[in-house]
Amino acid sequence: MKLHEYQAKQVFADAGIPTPDSALASDVDGVLEAAADIGYPVAIKAQVQVGGRGKAGGIELVESDEEAREAAERIIGMDLKGIHVERVLVEEAVDFTNELYVGVTMDRGEGKPVAMVSTKGGVNIEEVAEEDPDAIAREHIDPSFGMQPYQARKVVFDAGVDRAVATDVAGVLSTLYDLWTSKDGSDAEINPLMVTADDEVIAADAVMNIDEDALFRQPEIAEMGEEAAGGDELEQKADEYGFDYVRLDGSVGIIGNGAGLVMTTLDLVDYYGGSPANFLDVGGGAKAERITNALDMVFSDDNVDSVVFNIFGGITRGDEVAKGINEALEAFDEIPKPVVVRLAGTNWEEGMEILNEDLVTVEQTLEDAVQRSVEYAEEGEA
Amino acid sequence: MSVLVDEDTRVVVQGITGGEGKFHAGQMMEYGTNVVAGAVPGKGGQEVDGVPVYDTVDQAVREEDADASVIFVPPAFAGDAIFEALDTDLDLAVAITEGIPTQDMARVNKRLTETDTRLLGPNCPGIITPGESKLGILPGNIFAPGDVGLVSRSGTLTYQVVDSLTNRGIGQTTAIGIGGDPIIGTDFVDALAAFEDDPDTEAIVMCGEIGGEDEEEAAQYIADHVDTPVVGFIAGRTAPPGKRMGHAGAIVSGSGTGTAESKIDALNDAGVPVGDTPEEVADSVESIL
């Protein structure tokens, strides 16, 4: 789960990391009021969770009421890479001499947390990692002891951070690590951490992504998440139903159980010349109602011209799946899009007996089911 | 022959009184698994389907001589349950639970360096030696005893591939589900090493997916250490970067690491054919045997 910049900054500021003066606004008057309080120049920053916000026109530096009004009118309500901008952060513009990067994440290869510092802040750190990996200093942390003070100093000095600010940067990094552990972070990042002419450091941006599996023990963060929710309408609906769902831009709707098998079904759709409309994993042990909801999800996507249902039952039972498909489809006077079903594994024979074959096309193998759904999608487009 | 589990494996089920634990303990016993005990704090002295329940794993080991555990404990308590299994010096702990916080698994990962217990999972379907023993939730009826070792990050994809093999009369020595999380115990390299050491395993099927670099490491290991023929499959060729495809570990990062292409290339470079479809995997195995 990703926190918005303003939320992450609040979390960082509460922990003692210096952040610029700022206020949240959702209309032009709010922006002008905030700018007057803070004092020009200020940055007006769209609060949406997309990468490359600045390049897409979601951040503007303004020096007067006139410029602020113009920027606010443009940014609030704009469509930024498909996301509607509802709020902006009005923030003190920091006069900096240098931009650093500090971050903490999980190194999955090592199975250990890793702290990172670079003097190449202010740019896309993934590009730095690829083009100039030595420009990022790294230090693995033993999770049973936490980050030792010397480790914070070591990674800061290894990165070549100026001696005058090294102690402060190490302090910020230590705090960031503590936040990352105490809030169950997956990534915590400050990019850029600005260095001012008087050798002060200040977090000009803030990224805090939380491990969704740990939200049960992070009630405050979970509450922020409700506010942070946004994104595609269908993806929100999937959240409500509790599905793992990713929307893609093809025409074959895909429903299955188990991430690996659903991914494989997507790949086969592509392999046989079709294009997948989505990834939808109903999970293990799905009952009839869940199957009905899954069909509702996929039918809600206007791009979908056909649907392939591929269930290999382990803990999921074929009879429950068949019941769910019948219930979903019998509610329609006319089936919106052709549905191809392939059932295998636990209770598949019982499922086949129950399944109303007037409403769906049944195939015995995964390959046949996928090819049939691709044909239907082509007919639907024609 | 087989790897890691056989008919003599003595199993304690952690979380046997819960819905899933009870159901799957029953399924395991029906398959022939030697389930000797359950372990649930506060439920010691009860019985589930004739299996004695103890308050701690340690008691189950002392009283029933258990040497492996299967963990069906809810995510909030599963990290603790894994620690308990590791600290009791079992040979094998199989964690089925999905959704364990990653930072809990980082601490477990540290503990693994200090113990001889092998961990399988979490978020995995378990392990089965057909005709002898299964530890986990795999549907036993699709497996058959035979010569092929199988290791996979995904449960249902395992079933799909196994079904294709069994339908052709190709059985399995052991099938191992290593799990779809970012931090897991037994990885591809560990499983490949076990199959390479097993004289009865004539071919190995390895099913990977996008995310991380485990498949690339496995490819290198195969090139250096594995003489048994290996056939590969990689799920997620069409997955867009930055989107988590169900499994917490299945994500192609923005910088392009963890792609299906990189994994397929690495395996091909190691001499491992990678099927475009599960049926192609079965074709390759059939031609090897």
Write up what this structure looks like:
The complex is a heterodimer of chains A (382) and B (289). By secondary structure, chain A is α+β, with helices and mostly antiparallel strands. Chain A folds into three domains: 21-92, Dna Ligase, domain 1, CATH 3.30.1490; 96-227, ATP-grasp fold, B domain (D-amino Acid Aminotransferase, Chain A, domain 1, 2-Layer Sandwich), CATH 3.30.470; 233-381, Succinyl-CoA synthetase domains (Rossmann fold). Chain A contains 13 helices and 18 strands. Chain A has helices at 5-14, 28-38, 65-75, 125-131, 149-158, 163-182, 219-228, 233-241, 259-271, 288-299, 318-330, 348-354, 366-381; strands at residues 22-25, 42-46, 59-62, 79-80, 83-84, 88-92, 96-107, 112-118, 136-140, 185-196, 201-203, 207-210, 244-247, 252-256, 278-281, 306-313, 339-345, 361-362. In chain A, α5 (149-158) crosses α6 (163-182) and α11 (318-330) packs parallel to α12. Chain A is elongated. Chain B is an alpha/beta fold and 289 residues long. Chain B has two domains: 10-120, NAD(P)-binding Rossmann-like Domain (Rossmann fold, 3-Layer(aba) Sandwich), CATH 3.40.50; 139-288, Rossmann fold (3-Layer(aba) Sandwich), CATH 3.40.50.261. Chain B contains nine helices and 13 strands. In chain B, the strands form two sheets. Chain B has a seven-stranded mixed sheet, with helices on both faces. Chain B has a six-stranded mixed sheet with strand order 9-8-11-10-12-13, with helices on both faces. In chain B, α5 (155-167) packs across α9 and α7 runs parallel beside α8 (260-269). Chain B is globular and about 55 Å long. The two termini of chain B are 17 Å apart. The mean pLDDT of chain B is 94. At the A-B interface, α4 and α9 of A face α4 and α5 of B.
